[in-house]
Amino acid sequence: xxxxxxxxxxxxxxxxxxxxxxxxxxxxxxxxxxxxxxxxxxxxxxxxxxxxxxxxxxxxxxxxxxxxxxxxxxxxxxxxxxxxxxxxxxxxxxxxxxxxxxxxxxxxxxxxxxxxxxxxxxxxxxxxxxxxxxxxxxxxxxxxxxxxxxxxxxxxxxxxxxxxxxxxxxxxxxxxxxxxxxxxxxxxxxxxxxxxxxxxxxxxxxxxxxxxxxxxxxxxxxxxxxxxxxxxxxxxxxxxxxxxxxxxxxxxxxxxxxxxxxxxxxxxxxxxxxx
Length: 275
Fold this sequence. Notes:
Helices cover 23% and strands 25% of the residues. It is of the alpha+beta class. The chain has a single domain (11-274), classed as Endonuclease/exonuclease/phosphatase (Deoxyribonuclease I, Chain A, 4-Layer Sandwich).
């Protein structure tokens, strides 16, 4: 009689998100070594801050990986990128509005039936650390929501991975009371993330760890802050209901250094690719 595989033997794929705060800087701190040992099928990067011609060949085309970048027009700013062991069906980078597209913030990556949106959401702080970019940030949230709504309502599997630049609840940052007026934890920003979740998107990490405090993805570079774990959870993997049923695990890799953010991700049953 043939053995029936149990739940632990289901074929899985690992998808990871990481704001690298400059891929060239992160590369000097061991990014490629981490990538090779990450066991990831796809890694979405945010805040790449580089154009393809600025990258060494080993970083632009590591053996066994497909790489695509969507840089910002402004040098050394923003940008997203994807490293994938699996062939994608297509990648789209336009949100249909030039004011968003010039900042290189989105890759819509199709892997079979699965859509992975690799996204670097704007920060609400302006050049003078004011709140002048919050309207732009909220408009960006709403535009992306609209772009993904058809897939969501149709029940298709979609993941939105990246740096959302918003801590959703007090449990998601070490010092919520001190930051209620700070961009990233202001009511209007949190309300927009509320809207996504009420529409059906699932915060994969919080779904599996509903009451666990102290899990963060970003820390200030000020001395001792990360060591004392005075952080914010502003990076997420959101899943549509059509993708959530394939999620096996959600995790934060807080011990991985190289950036002021750490990687996070999900393991999925790879049946999602043919859902």
